[in-house]
Design brief:
It is elongated and about 55 Å long. It is mainly β. Helices cover 8% and strands 43% of the residues.
């Protein structure tokens, strides 16, 4: 057998039969798992006025609520009440007196698509806002391999009170 014939047989035997993805493991390497956030702030990015803020919000139809205190001596939120099977929610007051709702998930495809938030102070509604989170979706192993990355790139939605 000539060297050219031998090369053709080797290519036909070992290279051509390999399907696009089944010969290797498809992974989600390269997928980030960044949280998505709703940030409540005063106009012009100023700190919130001292008050007790009641937050009622929905993420993909799951309801949550909490109360946050913002003052010179205290910046705190009581633990969030509500439950979502696919993601976790934390609410806190930032060092510059803005309230941040942080949403994380072990599987980035389970992060919520939409939100609704209502904020009250002293029993009076201050603002109501709804919207969607934006994600970049891609397949890190190519279109023939399973695995979808859904990166939020740390998406923030800003709501002025």
């Amino acid at each position: 057998m000539s060297p050219r014939s031998l090369a053709a047989v080797l290519v036909a035997t070992f290279v051509l039969p390999l399907p696009a993805c089944s010969s290797r493991d498809c992974t989600l390497v390269g997928c980030d798992n960044q949280p998505v956030s709703v940030v409540l702030l005063s106009p012009n990015w100023m700190p919130l006025e001292p008050a007790v803020y009641r937050l009622e919000f929905m993420l993909d139809g799951s309801g949550f609520f909490t109360t946050c205190t913002v003052s010179q001596s205290e910046q705190s939120c009581v633990p969030v009440e509500g439950l979502a099977a696919d993601f976790e929610v934390a609410v806190f007051v930032t060092t510059n007196n803005q309230i941040r709702i942080n949403v994380t998930a072990d599987d980035n495809t389970q992060l919520p698509d939409d939100f609704q938030v209502a904020v009250s102070v002293g029993g009076s509604l201050v603002t109501e806002e709804s919207g969607t989170f934006e994600y970049e979706e891609f397949q890190p192993n190519g279109p023939d391999c399973a695995g979808l990355c859904r990166n939020s790139d740390g998406a923030f939605v800003f709501v002025e009170l």
